[in-house]
Design the sequence.
């Protein structure tokens, strides 16, 4: 680790200017981490909803499931899995949210946020997670809201398997189907299903839950939903309704995949798609930022650009199916095994 480097020329409008002249992404302001190096990005957070550090009561709550999230301090009870300390304080007396892997094979626990709304549809949950152990299952972030008159959860982020012996930073935006109504975030931890193992070393921990600036508290609740009356017109759990007169359903995996599968294109209507092509703004990368720390970097590549003869990238993109289109590329011409 090293302290961020000050920028003597000042910060651009899309960056947060720290008290020490360091420039950081506005997205990480008031997320529980001193990204500036002088703490000024965590000083004035009055416009943000309160961060949940688990050092005091939060408005989040456990759903009534067979397994539950617990708030603990210090090392997790099982050896060779889980954290030794929390993320907020970095000491054993700090508290964090914890899912014990001995809850049972395939067991899951759900932790739900208060009701929220988003003025611009960009509300994002920011959090820190710890997934260390040889039997780590899955950590999912979902949002739930009303879709086509029915309460429906949608997965917006999922992580599976071990992620190292450290606290990792994560984020998850509200799902496009929910972003203009009342919604909630749900944090779901699920065990692996391995009855042949006598002990599961797969504890999962979460800490410092914060919301981006566009997240606002909503004192209302999800509207009541009518009981379904025409079962054949419903979609299955792994399907999305196209909201058309023919009651067409498409697989969830086909939603927001840049292909119109619904007759009315409903599956691609609320995606905020980024095709990496030139547009009216100057940001060809749609606000995405390369945070690579290894020797390789992501780059916006024009498909018909000549290669060096060693690495041969695709000669056309997916959006335009032509050489004039763009896509994101990592050039691994040097083929260094293990580098990222």
Sequence:
């Amino acid at each position: 680790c090293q302290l961020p480097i000050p920028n003597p020329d000042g910060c651009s409008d899309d960056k947060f200017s720290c008290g020490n002249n360091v420039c950081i992404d506005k997205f990480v302001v008031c997320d529980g981490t001193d990204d500036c190096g002088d703490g000024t990005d965590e000083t004035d957070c009055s416009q943000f909803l309160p961060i949940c550090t688990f050092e005091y009561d939060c408005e989040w709550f456990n759903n009534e499931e067979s397994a539950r999230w617990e708030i603990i301090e210090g090392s997790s009870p099982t050896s060779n899995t889980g954290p030794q300390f929390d993320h907020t304080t970095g000491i054993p007396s700090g508290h964090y949210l914890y899912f014990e892997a001995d809850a049972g094979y395939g067991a899951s626990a759900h932790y739900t946020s208060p009701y929220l709304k988003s003025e611009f549809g960009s509300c994002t949950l920011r959090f820190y997670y710890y997934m260390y152990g040889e039997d780590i299952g899955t950590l999912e972030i979902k949002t739930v809201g009303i879709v086509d008159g029915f309460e429906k959860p949608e997965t917006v982020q999922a992580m599976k398997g071990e992620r190292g012996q450290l606290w990792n930073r994560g984020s998850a935006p509200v799902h496009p189907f929910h972003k203009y109504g009342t919604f909630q975030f749900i944090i779901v931890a699920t065990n692996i299903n391995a009855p042949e193992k006598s002990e599961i070393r797969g504890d999962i921990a979460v800490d410092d839950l914060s919301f981006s600036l566009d997240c606002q508290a909503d004192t209302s609740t999800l509207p009541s939903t009518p009981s379904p009356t025409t079962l054949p017109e419903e979609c299955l759990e792994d399907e999305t309704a196209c909201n058309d007169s023919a009651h067409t359903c498409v697989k969830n995996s086909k939603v927001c995949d840049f292909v119109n599968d619904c007759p009315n294109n409903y599956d691609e209507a609320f995606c905020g798609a980024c095709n990496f092509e030139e547009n009216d703004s100057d940001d060809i990368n749609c606000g995405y930022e390369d945070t690579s720390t290894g020797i390789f970097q992501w780059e916006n590549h024009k498909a018909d650009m000549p290669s060096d003869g060693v690495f041969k990238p695709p000669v056309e993109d997916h959006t335009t199916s032509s050489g004039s289109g763009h896509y994101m590329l990592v050039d691994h011409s040097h083929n260094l095994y293990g580098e990222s």
